[in-house]
Amino acid sequence: MNSKFNVKLSWSFYDWANSAWSAIIITFIFARYFVDVLAPDKDLGTLYWTWTIGISSLVAALLSPIFGSISDQSQRSKFWLILSTLIYALIALSFWFAQPKGMDLLLIIFLLFIGNISYEISQIFYNGQLKLITTEKNYAKLSGFAWGLGYAGTVIIFIIYYGIFLLPSDPIFALDKTTYENIRISFPITGVWILLFSLPLFLSFKDPNSNTLTSKVNIKESFNQIIKTFKDLKKYKNIIWFLIARLFYMDGINAIFAVAAIYATLVFGMSTTDIIMLGIGTNIAAGIGSWIFSFIENKIGSKNIIVFSLICIFIISLIILLIDQKNTFIILAIGLSSFFGPIQSASRVYFAKSIPDEKKYEFFGFYSFSGKVTSFIGPILFGTISYSFSSPKLGMASLLVLFAVGLLILTKVKNDRRVENRL
Q: How far is it, in rounded angstroms, from Cα 226 to Cα 233?
């Protein structure tokens, strides 16, 4: 049932739906609004933001193996995906009320904290479903298509927001700019977008019928299963090396996502309009990159896609640190983004190829764990160094170390199986 085309398409559109959280809330609009408008000053705002994103990612990482084990035990990934999605979508909706002298800053930070945890946890159930809806030879194409759709969805929501609420001199909706309604409207749009485009997956995907299907959650059994898996990890040495490598390079990528708009604002003085146009350009590039690499991944291998993308990310990031012109930065940022989609999609595919079917959610819990357990380091490193030296460039330079270490550890990871590239 889950192998039907409509399920695969619905699964891919969940990427279209959830990318709005990471793009609008975490990376571009809300991040800049928080630092520029809500925080007492920009330096302190950067510090608050990076620590909130960092600590919430750490908490999500620690919870990920537990939720993965619970999902394997209960065979109810759909229920957990719906629940976690509802939480972060409703929090996005609530940010309409985040205005100066309105919603308390501590409450905003708390909601951001909970929302980001829910978003990260949702990825466990979503990623694990890949192994249920298609075969190994199609992992790369479907994963790459989904990542590409995610970036395409971000472009569309940016265009809708920019074209209706920011660009027109006489917009259709009369929004009060003095209370930033023209910016805050993007947050409820994000919440509705997430719910609307998640709905097809919620309706079409069916958890497998099995003897293990249960409505009860045995937390003790989940912990016992995690402990057993830890003891068995010696059987999966290659997976361990891969997860350690991913831990470092995803720290760098997640940090860039978390601070990109802040960096662009502080270093190049980019306005909200500039940030939106940058967001459109970078997401188009990332989507195109995802789709292109998905068609050649089976031939050259997922690991090789990851290595090549990392090398390009490191080089372009280094060049960005050396320039001071806004237009040059925009061009380089778009080029940099074209490798974000491929590296994330190829990582998911490499891991899916390598893990046992019967523990897919638990292993994807560890996958999320490795991508987030130290992800607080990147944003906190950037925020602390930027604040201490009043230099966002020094903060960004510190992230290059994470890419270099991840690339070095990847040399210990085996090349993955190459499969025939046919439908």
A: 10
